[in-house]
Amino acid sequence: MTGTLESALRRRIDGGGKCLVPYVTGGYPGWVDSLRACAANGADAIEIGIPFSDPVMDGPVIQQSSQVALEAGATPVSILQEVRTLDVGIPLAVMCYYNTVFHAGHERFASDLRAAGVVAAIVPDLPLEEAGDWCAAADAAGVETVMLAAPTAPDERLPRVTARARGFVYSVGLLGVTGERTSLSSTATALAARVKKVTAMPVLVGVGVSNAEQAVEACRVADGVIMGASVVRRMIEEGPDAVGDFVGGVRRALDGATW
Amino acid sequence: MSVLVTPGPDGRFGDFGGRFVPETLVPACQELEAAFEDAWADPVFRGDLDHILREYAGRPSMLTECHNLGRQLGIRLILKREDLNHTGSHKINNVLGQTLLAKRMGKKRIVAETGAGQHGVASATAAALMGLECKVYMGAVDVERQALNVFRMRLLGAEVEAVHSGSRTLKDAVNEAMRDWVATVESTHYCLGSVMGPHPYPYMVRQFHRVIGDEAFAQCNDLLGAPPGVVVACVGGGSNAMGIFSGFVDTQARLVGVEPAGGAAVKRGQPGVVHGMKSYLMQDEHGQVQEAHSVSAGLDYPGVGPEHSYLASIGRAEYPNVTDDEVIEAFQLLSRTEGIIPALECAHAVAWIAREAPSMQGQTVLMNLSGRGDKDVAQMMDILGGGQ
Ligand SMILES: Cc1ncc(COP(=O)(O)O)c(C=O)c1O
Fold it and tell me: Where are the domains of chain A?
């Protein structure tokens, strides 16, 4: 059965479009307004970051937003409570580090997500070999677990990763942590092409996709993009309106390109 | 069968350990695992390692019996002198092993985290010896309290970066070193400084430190004709403790790993996952990792290596803790009674022995003196006042 997130992305792809998934740090002061601004400006789904004390996959911008959110008292519970009241009309996923899941317990965390209306989870420090128990609990609760494919993965590994993926495959755009870069890494399209070859799932590029131009470039190969630090930086520096303008601009660029 | 676990591909010590890293690092960990297995089984590698441990690090380290303090405490107290190794602590054993391995793997650069700076100094030293580029991440708080070691690292040609995120101590230095490694994994080896992190690190680092326990076992046989009754070491990540424990897990000796009261992962923590491993971890009710607080930068860590969690869970080793005040006392006690200034880290072990001696009367206690205290003298001067 195709999950809610995958179905939403497929609708976009089948209509000839490209998917846009912005990332917003949950619990950052005013984050819900930024999330609504994303939804109102053409996002296909939204990734809500659950802040963690030790975010090893994140660069300075998302680290800072996480720290501010934690200092403001954000917890996984408080964020999911807010999510529960949202009705933005597009699928919501969470991005969280594994200790958040492990600490709550797999079954409980999966059912808490579902109860809050979250349909998918991305757990960047839970690689394939360690993911079995969580994936089983998530599958049972109807939560799609997005798997990450990395540029360092040998050919033999990629199909095993994509076979375990639900929702979409997160094709990591570069060797490194989240953060804006002046240009799209050549690794981004190279890996997306390798991943596309081994799966029929939607393939989205994330990490290091920093503006509309880079999003279009990535989508020459991929089915869509995840935009994190570029969105979060605007949320921190300028607020929800700037987030909405930025996401709307990327949407128009993706819709205006010919594929 | 030995209590000492050789983990399988899943990297488990009982329920603990594993490999919880970003997908980008999985192939690097697998490669390292294979390279280590291969090297460890290769007599040429082992011969090269033994050679530099002897000719460069100064092994074997000797045993010193503390007659004065032993008499005062009513025990027989014997120190394993890792403080006498080149660079002043046990850290060099692991670093020489890992850098030799990194060279064998064709890596050009190493990154390391450091707390007290001893692992950073050892890494910078080995990098200088072997012609590797070296970058060391160190929490901004530790850069301040271990200024001498920062200068030593720079003198040795390493780049030292102060880490300003989070608690600005060892935990955050590990995060930053991992972020560096994610970006540079093709050319860089992460020279992790304790028996922690993702598989194969906890196992590999223990194997590189086994030399402590293996030597001590033989030396105790010579000196005592038997293993000691108690084996004590301080525990930050737990490498010096695993090193000495590995020589005695299969004996009757009582094994004691001493943690700081402000970083008592085993006693106050619950199983959790951070820095690539599942282990006891100090965390809040939502699974956020808590900041440790210790006078000793090298033990200022909210987690512990997974093999210690395992040994605690099966009841083979115990993990009490001591307060900063007890440690400051013990630091002076060993200095005055034996003329040996210990590192603040292993002053934790001294503190526990001094406190518990009344219940160990007449017993033989072997303590791993993991490092020398020169690096801590400036900090102690601030604490005690210069005239003390
Ligand atoms: C002298 C000394 N002992 C102990 C430690 C703690 O490390 P571990 O628990 O891995 O032995 C350190 C760490 O910096 C150290 O410098």
Answer: 18-253
Q: How far apart are CA A169 and CA A192, in angstroms?
A: 9
Pairing of strands A120-122, A92-95: parallel
Peptide bond into B60 cis (omega under 30): yes
Per-residue pLDDT at B387: 55
Per-window interface: A 57-96 vs B, CB < 8 A: 57, 59, 63, 67, 70, 75-77
Here the tokens at position A67 are 């720290």
The fold for domain A18-253 equals: TIM Barrel (3.20.20)
**B117 C-alpha to ligand 1 centroid (Å):** 9
State residue A26 phi and psi, 5-degree precision.
-60, 140
ipTM score: 0.97
User: Is there a contact between A69 and A26 (Cβ–Cβ < 8 Å)?
Assistant: yes
Q: b vs e for B142-161, b when ≥16 Cβ sit within 10 Å of the residue's Cβ? A: bbebbebbbebbeebebebb
Which chain B residues are closer than 8 Å to A124 by Cβ?
A: 22-23
How many Å lie between the alpha carbon of A60 and the closest alpha carbon of chain B? 9
Is A112 catalytic? The answer is no
Report yes or no: B69 and B337 within 8 Å, Cβ to Cβ.
yes
Per-residue confidence (pLDDT) for residue B145, from 0 to 100: 85
10-residue mean pLDDT series, chain A (259 residues) = 93 98 98 98 98 96 97 98 96 98 98 98 98 98 98 97 98 96 97 98 98 98 98 98 98 97
Q: Say how many Å lie between the CA of residue B386 and the centre of ligand 1.
A: 26
B46 is written with which tokens? 């082992």
Q: What is the model's pLDDT at position B152? A: 96
Nearest neighbour of B22 by CB, restricted to A76, A99, A125: A125
| Inter-chain CB proximity B273 and A125 less than 8 Å | yes
Q: For residue B382, how many other CB atoms are within 10 A of its CB?
A: 9
| B278 has a chain A CB within 8 A of its CB | yes
Task: Judge: A127–B184 Cβ closer than 8 Å, yes or no.
Answer: no
Mutate to test the pocket of ligand 1, among B240, B301, B348 (most ligand atoms within 8 A of CB): B240
Catalytic residue among A6, A44, A47, A217: A47
CA nearest A62 in B: which residue? B165
pLDDT at B167 (0 to 100): 87
Cβ B259 vs Cβ B12: under 8 Å: no
The alpha carbon of B332 and the centre of ligand 1 are apart by a number of angstroms equal to 19
What is the distance in A from the centroid of ligand 1 to the CA of B247? 18
**Alpha-carbon A118 to chain mean position:** 12
Give the dihedral of Cα atoms B276, B278, B284, B290; nearest 10 deg: -50
Rounded alpha-carbon distances, angstroms, from residue B213 to A190, A243, B3, B207? 49, 58, 14, 10
Mean pLDDT per block of 10 residues along chain B (388 residues) reads 93 98 97 98 98 98 98 98 98 98 98 96 98 98 92 98 93 96 96 98 98 98 98 98 98 98 96 98 97 92 97 98 98 98 98 98 98 94 80
Among A100, A152, A158, pick the best mutation site for testing chain B contact (most B Cβ within 10 A): A152
CA distance to A181, B209, B315, per residue, from A191 (Å): 17, 39, 47
The residue in chain B having the minimum alpha-carbon distance to the alpha carbon of residue A75 is B286
Give CA separation, B289 vs A114, B23, B139, B162, B283, in Å: 25, 22, 16, 21, 4
Beta bridge partner(s), residue B63:
B80
Residue-level pLDDT at B313 = 98
